């Protein structure tokens, strides 16, 4: 795949970039390795000062970077601005909380004595150079939610971003440098996927984090496993959105639309499978389909647009294959399931609701990365849980119910990294984020995320 900015609203190639050669990659790894030896010695106050400076720059440049993101991957300008603001917020959160999150941990005095020590504690120390392999769908946020905690912990980063968002990738590398971070602390590598293995096998690279497809995760995890290096993987998702009889149907349907089409439907944590109790199924389906049909599809730079294009021609083709497979096997399109006739240029697809999904349809098992929702009817709570868990993924889940007994059951039984009641899944710096099953392993954000790339060191003093 060429490293290029291709406008998904028009299909126009705006700018292309040459990939780094071996010498360029070597220079950046060497710079990162050298930077880590000094950066790890800095105090939390200095790290926080620089991270806040980066947040200030991001706030000032919000409109410019938002337009770059919209140009490169098609998210609406409104969503792009919100993403930039969220990144600045996360930077400030980690600047203010990292020291406490990584404070020494002291066992109970009785346990220290029982270990034969006069004093013992756990100290969190950084691992070193971390390779971040990041996707295009949230081109700023996915990177910052790794970079902010990693830098505050004393690590340094090498970013291999998706090849279709090179300008956003270069902006990120320059952002931290302009904020005052020492040379080599955070660098962008403009390289193709074929170069990742050599970087990860370099002994100066300590660990890797990847957000992306299951295939990409398998490839990186395989190399890292062979090298015995730590990884964190956040992969695909096919999150359930469960609606029970006690739910506020008007509110549930309203949120369901946002949960499905956020980021033009291209989000791992977007709700994709809508599982509705039979007692309220028809009422919910009518509300949901009506609202999905009313969404305005068009130019992502227009503030009146609800849904822009998907990010690539191949991405739309993949989405169409899933929909056509379902329709050929008996599914019913309640709305959409086609390209909008008024938008012949660009990679647009109408918001779609499919009903009558069966297990032999690919869309039942595969992730639909675009504005396509699947609708299921569940006879009772057990059936809803069964449908929800009948997927290889387990990233997050959404449940609408006012019944406390039902809530306890869903928390106990749903196979997911998160259970969100009466709302939609969203990431926040204070809450851990990640999944189970083929959605990956490890956690980002919160104290769990900042400690993923730390050495939990036992310090023990004898008498």
From TrEMBL:
The keyword NADP applies. InterPro entries: Ald_DH/histidinol_DH, Ald_DH_C, Ald_DH_CS_CYS, Ald_DH_N, Aldehyde_DH_dom, ALDH_GabD1-like, GABD/Sad-like. Keywords: NADP, Oxidoreductase. The keyword NADP applies. Residues 3-459 form the Aldehyde dehydrogenase domain. PANTHER family: SUCCINATE SEMIALDEHYDE DEHYDROGENASE [NAD(P)+] SAD. This is NADP-dependent succinic semialdehyde dehydrogenase. It comes from Actinacidiphila epipremni.
